[in-house]
């Protein structure tokens, strides 16, 4: 269909059409198909168009830094950045990340993350994203996307959609209703579309029984039609399960190109060329795929900002194989280009402002040059083998600054809390003791008993499910502190009445017993702070930075408080998981069930007292919601495809690289297109009805303003409150079978410090519907 959209898409599409119109059939296929796992320098590589001087597209992890390279930064994790509730910091973080990817020669950053949203507090990859609240995640991802793409790199928001746990992620079916899909899980993706995101990565899991990367409902219907997404959909690595079906369902780029990683077969490549030649896949669909890829490329000005790829994902030496899978092309592959700039200062600022002060009694904090400090716990220390000793950070030795998996990068350095605290105490003339082991309780008690303040460090880790650490298959086995953290805290508090507890964790942990311990005078959640961990923490402990962090999730008192259980056992690798809780996750569930949390969503103390006064609600005449009516234009084609199969054969005398995926045919003996089950209407390029929820070009209009403004929809099946900012909606219901509606129940607006601490309230005026 004719694609449309604001924010630079019109010009980008004009350039993309001009480029794609010049391409042959194999060249168009080359833009859509990865060349194979480890086939070239980047994590993901498309084919190239040498005839037009177009280098292959380079895709690289991840959301927290440039993976598999050196001289780059390790950023604050998404969930810790979210705790800052700062649009400015989110955008600056996105820009700095984008600049590092750009200067390594990368075209597409595989991030940011809003899937998982965080349905399950034990979910292994929650820390990569922002929050289980869709509004907070939506604002954070939008700012991140804008920042990243302003730097000249395509952002690929992931994992679309409902990839909410790591166990069985390759086949689990997340089953849910339409209301839950729209009001929770689709919401932040919609915000990324409004922000102009260039790419969306589809996930490994199934959705209501169909794999995400071949779900026409999810890709064509929701993302491309309803949200009016203009960019390209790329598969997660190995998440493509079919060729023709995935193409017609809305997948635009297959990564890394292999049907199964390292098996060096492909669903596309020459097979896609063949499918177009025998008319199983219409030319308009292939053109749509190629144009979406190139439109995203032009939208972020990659034609102006590109530099040569100056690293290899597969070796860290200066020289090595260019084509690593084939063990060919020995040359200079790593130029060791430094891209960090002064980003350490930004990382330090975000980490400090994302630190949440959960408890502070007896003026324990900020510290005021105490006479002596005892720093206790392995989580305060350096890893003796270095911060990058464990591949993809799959371990828990020393201080925890990032989770594990593909979202990680190499630390250029890691400032451990003990190091930063020792430096500060030396400057202040404070006596300093450091106990490095969690298990030497006698030493911990001895140091604590002689200190005016004891600072204990404890953590809880998680990561991606391709590897297991200490029995944690990505998802956490439980929500308790690791490495005997509870026992360590009990030992220290038994002898020191002024104990400060610092938690580094991927999400909530069960520490209500620590909260109520009278000898624990302060608790800080420092999240996953990245490379400036110790410096940012010292800034908060000593009051150089006033705590502004608010917890982006709810802290329960018991593991059952969230009402969600990770599915860890199944008789099949294709289990079903019903999202029967609907929209009631995190604080919505706590409110619905009237469960008292340890700390509610949005909670955070400060060294300053704030007051709230005067809430005024005004009705504003908006332009109104305009549902998509009528039909789309017919699907266009660009350029003329030579239907003679001979033109798509491997060029004469071309020397193929082994294990490298090409777009050419090996034979002109093409099979006839047979009968197969395909998505309904997927081969039809005629005008199609516009979905009523689609709204304005580029996605539904955004109608929200301020963090910590909550809205009550008032209905019996609605959450008590939801974070919205200021949400004003005018709808025209009843114009289709499915549409957005405003219910008749009274709508209340609350302004406050957290999801349970409301200072002001008012009634939202709703005019006649």
Descriptive account of the structure:
- With 769 residues, this protein is of the alpha/beta class.
- Among the domains are: 323 residues, Alpha-Beta Barrel (TIM Barrel); 210 residues, Rossmann fold.
- Helices cover 24% and strands 13% of the residues.
- It has 19 helices and 22 strands.
- It has a six-stranded mixed sheet.
- Strand 16, helix 17 and strand 17 form a beta-alpha-beta unit.
- The longest helix is centred in the N-terminal third of the chain and has 17 residues.
- The chain is globular, with a radius of gyration of 27 Å.
- The protein starts with 8 loop residues before the first helix and ends in a 6-residue tail after the last strand.
- The N terminus is likely disordered.
Strand content: 5-15%
The gyration radius over C-alpha positions equals 27 Å
The largest sheet, given as strand count, sense and whether it forms a barrel, is: 6 strands, mixed
Strand order, biggest sheet? 1-2-3-4-6-9
Q: What is the arithmetic mean of pLDDT?
A: 90
Choose one word for the global shape. globular
Distance between the termini: 33 Å
How many helices does DSSP assign?
Answer: 19
User: What is the CATH topology classification name of the domain at 9-305 and 318-328 and 634-648?
Assistant: TIM Barrel
- The poorly predicted ranges are 1-6, 694-707, 725-737
Record the SSE blueprint:
Elements: H1 9-20, H2 25-32, E1 44-45, E2 58-61, H3 78-82, H4 87-103, E3 108-110, H5 134-150, E4 154-160, E5 173-175, H6 178-185, H7 187-194, E6 199-202, E7 206-207, E8 210-211, H8 216-226, E9 232-235, H9 244-249, H10 270-277, H11 283-299, H12 302-305, E10 319-323, E11 328-332, H13 343-353, E12 356-360, E13 372-376, H14 417-428, E14 431-435, H15 441-449, E15 453-460, H16 485-493, E16 499-505, H17 512-515, E17 520-525, H18 533-541, E18 576-578, H19 587-593, E19 709-712, E20 722-723, E21 748-752, E22 758-763
Parallel strand pairs: 2-3, 3-4, 4-6, 5-7, 5-18, 6-9, 13-14, 13-15, 15-16, 16-17
Antiparallel strand pairs: 1-2, 7-8, 10-11, 12-17, 19-20, 19-21, 21-22
Helix pairs in contact: 1-11, 2-11, 4-5, 4-13, 5-7, 13-18, 14-18, 15-16
């Amino acid at each position: 269909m004719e694609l449309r959209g604001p924010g630079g898409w019109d010009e980008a599409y004009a350039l993309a059409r001009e480029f794609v119109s010049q391409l042959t059939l194999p060249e168009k296929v080359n833009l859509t198909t990865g060349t194979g796992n480890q086939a070239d320098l980047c994590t993901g590589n498309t084919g190239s168009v040498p005839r037009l001087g177009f280098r292959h597209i380079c895709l690289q992890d991840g959301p927290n830094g440039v993976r598999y390279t050196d001289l780059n930064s390790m950023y604050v994790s998404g969930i810790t950045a979210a705790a800052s509730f700062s649009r400015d910091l989110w955008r600056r973080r996105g820009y700095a990340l984008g600049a590092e990817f750009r200067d390594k020669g990368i075209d597409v950053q595989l991030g940011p993350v809003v899937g998982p949203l965080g349905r399950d507090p034990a979910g292994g990859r929650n820390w990569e994203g922002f929050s289980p609240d869709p509004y907070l995640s939506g604002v954070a991802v939008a700012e991140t996307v804008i920042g990243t793409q302003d730097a000249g790199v395509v952002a690929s928001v992931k994992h679309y959609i409902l990839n909410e746990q790591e166990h069985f992620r390759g086949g689990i079916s997340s089953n849910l209703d339409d209301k839950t899909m729209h009001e929770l899980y689709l919401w932040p993706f919609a915000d990324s579309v409004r922000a102009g995101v260039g790419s969306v990565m589809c996930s490994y899991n199934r959705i209501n029984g169909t794999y995400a990367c071949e779900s026409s409902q999810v890709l064509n219907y929701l993302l491309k039609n309803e949200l009016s997404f203009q960019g390209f959909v790329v598969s997660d690595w190995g998440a493509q399960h079919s060729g023709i079906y995935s193409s017609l369902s809305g997948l635009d780029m297959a990564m890394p190109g292999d049907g199964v990683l390292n098996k060096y077969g492909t669903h596309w490549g020459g097979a896609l060329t063949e499918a177009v030649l025998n008319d199983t896949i219409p030319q308009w669909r292939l053109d749509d795929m190629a144009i979406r890829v190139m439109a995203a490329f032009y939208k972020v000005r990659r034609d102006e900002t590109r530099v040569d790829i100056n690293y290899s994902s597969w070796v860290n030496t200066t020289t090595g194989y260019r084509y690593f899978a084939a063990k060919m092309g020995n040359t200079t592959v790593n130029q060791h280009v430094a891209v960090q700039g002064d980003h350490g200062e930004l990382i330090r600022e975000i980490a400090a402002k994302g630190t949440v002060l959960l408890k502070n009694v007896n003026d324990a904090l900020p510290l005021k040059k105490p006479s002596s400090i005892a720093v206790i716990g392995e989580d305060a220390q350096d890893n003796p083998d270095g911060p990058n000793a464990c591949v993809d950070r799959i371990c828990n030795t020393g201080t925890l600054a990032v989770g594990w998996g593909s979202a990680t990068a190499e630390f250029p350095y890691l400032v451990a809390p003990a190091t930063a605290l020792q430096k500060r105490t030396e400057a202040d003339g404070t006596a300093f003791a450091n106990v490095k082991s969690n298990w030497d309780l006698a030493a911990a008690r001895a140091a604590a008993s002689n200190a005016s303040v004891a600072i204990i460090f404890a953590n809880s880790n998680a990561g991606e499910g391709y590897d297991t650490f200490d029995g944690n298959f990505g998802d956490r086995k439980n929500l308790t502190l690791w490495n005997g953290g509870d026992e360590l805290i009990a030992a220290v508090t038994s002898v020191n009445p002024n104990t400060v507890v610092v938690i580094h964790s991927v999400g909530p942990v069960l520490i209500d017993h620590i909260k109520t311990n009278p000898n624990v005078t302060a608790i800080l959640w420092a999240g996953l702070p990245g490379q400036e961990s110790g410096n940012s923490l010292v800034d908060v402990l000593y009051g150089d930075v006033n705590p502004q962090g608010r917890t982006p999730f709810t802290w329960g008192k018991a593991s059952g408080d969230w009402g969600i259980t990770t599915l860890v056992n199944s008789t099949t690798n294709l289990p079903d998981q019903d999202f029967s809780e609907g929209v009631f996750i995190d604080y919505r569930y706590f409110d619905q069930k009237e469960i008292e949390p340890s700390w509610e969503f949005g909670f955070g103390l400060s060294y300053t007292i704030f007051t709230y006064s005067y809430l005024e609600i005004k009705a504003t005449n908006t332009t109104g919601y305009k549902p998509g009516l009528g039909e789309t234009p017919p699907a266009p084609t660009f350029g003329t495809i030579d239907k003679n199969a001979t033109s798509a054969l491997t060029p004469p005398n071309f020397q193929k690289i082994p294990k490298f995926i090409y777009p050419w045919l090996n034979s002109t003996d093409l099979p006839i297109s047979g009968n197969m089950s395909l998505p309904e209407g997927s081969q039809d390029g005629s005008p199609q009805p516009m979905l009523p929820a689609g709204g304005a070009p580029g996605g539904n209009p955004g109608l929200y303003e301020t963090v910590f403004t909550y809205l009550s929809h008032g209905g019996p099946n609605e959450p008590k409150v939801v974070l919205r900012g200021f949400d004003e909606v005018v709808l025209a219901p009843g114009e289709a079978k499915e549409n957005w509606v405003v219910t008749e129940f009274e709508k209340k607006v609350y302004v406050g410090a957290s999801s349970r601490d409301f200072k002001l309230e008012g009634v939202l005026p709703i005019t006649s519907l």
